[in-house]
Amino acid sequence: MKWAAENVDILGGNGRLAVGGESAGGNLAAVVCQMARDEASPKIGFQLLLYPVVDCDMSRQSYIDNAKDYILTTDSMHWFWNHYCPEQSARQHPRASPLRGELSGLPPALVVTAEFDPLRDEGAAYADALKAAGNDTRYVCYAGLVHDFFAQAQTFHACREAFDACCAELKRRLT
């Protein structure tokens, strides 16, 4: 992000920056926003978080309701956490679980989740916490969709509406 901010001319941008990511990428995007705020640079104008991993607590209802059969499973999330951050106590740190960090003063956010995704409830909790901390935040849960639906927008018509809406919001925030 710092490089992008310093090289806006090379990139042909207008100086406005946004971050976004899906799943673990949503985790990274959320952490980058917190770090940029803490370091007062660069100024990020928008965050697009698609079914983000934002907390190590895997006991939420969506982890139970969507434990298996929907692409991402609760077992696979345990595997991912065990490999990404094997030390249980380190998972509590906001750089691993951004929901546990200071959330005031962050860029406007669109948090998107899917009905049949173990990450649904932590995404909703993050959006609620962002709002409670005074941030401009919108949350959308797409009914009938599963984890990673964004990547399937060209293949499945049901995913296209969400893809188009996210792109429109990103364009609106950057122009």
CATH class: Alpha Beta
Counting helices, strands and paired strands, the structural category is alpha/beta
Low-pLDDT runs of 5+ residues are none
Q: How many strands in all?
A: 4
Quickly give the CATH architecture: 3-Layer(aba) Sandwich
Distance between the termini: 18 Å
CATH topology: Rossmann fold
Mind telling me the CATH superfamily name?
Alpha/Beta hydrolase fold, catalytic domain
What's the structural domain tally?
Answer: 1
Q: What does the overall shape look like? A: globular
Number of helices: 7
What does this 3D model show about the protein?
By secondary structure, this protein is of the alpha/beta class. The protein has one domain: Alpha/Beta hydrolase fold, catalytic domain (Rossmann fold), CATH 3.40.50. The chain has seven helices and four strands; from the N terminus they run ααβαβααβαβα. It has helices at 2-6, 8-11, 24-39, 61-65, 74-84, 120-132, 157-174, and strands at 18-22, 46-50, 109-116, 137-146. A four-stranded parallel beta sheet has the order 1-2-3-4, with helices on both faces. Strand 3, helix 6 and strand 4 form a beta-alpha-beta unit. It is globular.
